[in-house]
Write a structure and sequence with these properties.
The protein is mainly alpha-helical. The chain contains one helix and no strands.
């Protein structure tokens, strides 16, 4: 049955499953220092220097 999964799946940036979305049409509206902060934080996550907690909602 579609949507009836037996296992929980976790996706993370380090394994390449997810990433930060592009800015698209907002590129020119986001300050450069904020884009730099986002890029630096992304690199820290990939290096394991910053840990993003797993947030798993209980299944019903």
């Amino acid at each position: 049955m579609p949507g009836d999964f037996k296992e929980e799946y976790l996706y993370d940036m380090v394994q390449g499953d997810v990433d930060i979305a592009p800015y698209h049409d907002l590129e020119n509206k986001i300050p450069e220092d904020m884009k730099k902060l986002v890029a630096e934080t992304r690199e820290k996550i990939l290096k394991g220097e910053e840990v993003v907690p797993d947030i798993v909602k209980p299944s019903k």
